[in-house]
Amino acid sequence: MSVEVVAGLSLKNLKPRVWDPTSPHYLPNLRAVMVSYADFERMPARRKAAMELGLHAYLGAPEGVKIYLDNGSFYQLTKGGNTSRSAYEEFIQEARPDWYAIPQDFIPTPQMSDAEQIECLRRTMEMNRSYRHDGYVPVIHISRHLSEYLRELLADVQLRAKEKVALGGIVPNLLRAPKAMSYADVLDNVRQARLQLAGQHLHVFGLGGTATMHLAALLDVDSADSSGWRNRAARGIVQLPGRGDRVVANLGSWRGRVPDQAEQDMLAACKCPACTTYSFLGLQSSGIEGFCNRATHNLWVLLEETQQVLEHIQNDAYETWYEAHLDNSVYRPLIKYVLERHSVENQD
Fold it and tell me: CA gyration radius for the chain?
């Protein structure tokens, strides 16, 4: 059992270079990063450079770090745009990512009518079928109609034979968009996809906080990407193992819990590159230095937390461990829900 943590990057600011062995913020346990084609589409010079050099050389990523390419459909959803298939195909051919989704998927948001969600399904499955002959990863969506996605995917011999499948649509629901599915229904969707796609590498888009990685591991997801390590850092927030978010830098209107003395002691003892080099004061700094320190710390915590979860699951010690370890009122009931479902399924 393993869950690959895929660190979401931003071309606007590639610091901290946590994947780069020459960087002071290097995290050797990081094995995958994700870049968005939408960023390259908006930055033609960078797109050209990535195609000329290849993504590995462009980013300075060593062989052991895989590069995932997101097609940028969530960005397109918010902007109402479309991706050129031929331009995307050209980028894939020249930039050579290790993992790449179909050129565009059409995300069914919770507030859509059933007819609108079905139309998203139709357009996404049409794209999946158009790219079923090669390494493009098909996409399906968490929604009220996941069963239809799975039925159509599994009915197609070539799509069913794909080694990898991506599950999208989770972000609008987790962000509590209007008419969002309940957390339990979201988890049931992930569980359903995992059971019906047994043997295929299942990647879940946007499931990457420390507490949600507990859920990813329990649901047997193979990989999940996260940009939260950067987003939190930009708001002056760091994560603590098992405890969630704490505000350590006052950067304007962002509010939240500040670390108490015991949590400050935890940060003082943290072994991540940022804390060992720059201490708690480095996390509190403003500007790019403070951002890099907080982001590095957050991703290190995410990687360490995931490893801890996996080890305790493999040792059949997870249920006892998480009750003492996880102090998060939102996610504890969800973890309990998944564990109870596992128990029922095992009895059956």
Answer: 20
Closest Cα to residue 146, out of 192, 187, 84, 95? 192
Residue 23 DSSP symbol = S
Report the C-alpha gap between 198 and 75 in whole angstroms.
Answer: 30
- Give, in order, the Cα–Cα distances in Å from 143 to each of 150, 269, 335, 341: 11, 42, 21, 20
Strand order in the sheet with 32-36: 99-100, 66-70, 32-36, 4-8, 223-226, 201-204, 164-168, 139-141
CA distance 280 to 274: 9
Q: Is 154 helix (H, G, I), strand (E, B) or coil?
A: helix
Coil, strand or helix at 342: helix
Q: What angle do CA 140, 9, 326 make, to 5 degrees?
A: 75
The whole-number pLDDT of residue 175 equals 64
Which of residues 94 and 176 earns the better pLDDT score?
A: 94
Q: Which of 104, 42, 44, 45 is nearest to 69 (CA)?
A: 104
Domains with residue ranges and CATH for the chain: 4-231 (3.20.20.105), 232-307 (no CATH)
Taken in order 255, 256, 258, 259, the sign of the CA dihedral is negative
**pLDDT for 252-283, tens place per residue?**
777 788 999 999 999 999 999 999 999 999 99
pTM of this structure = 0.94
Indicate the residue type of 340: E
Burial, 97: exposed, middle or buried (Cβ in 10 Å; 0-12, 13-18, 19+)?
A: buried
pLDDT in tens, 29-40: 999 999 999 999
Phi–psi pair at 235, nearest 5 degrees = -100, 10
Write the burial class of residue 268 (CB in 10 Å: 0-12 exposed, 13-18 middle, 19+ buried). exposed
Percent of the chain with pLDDT over 90: 79
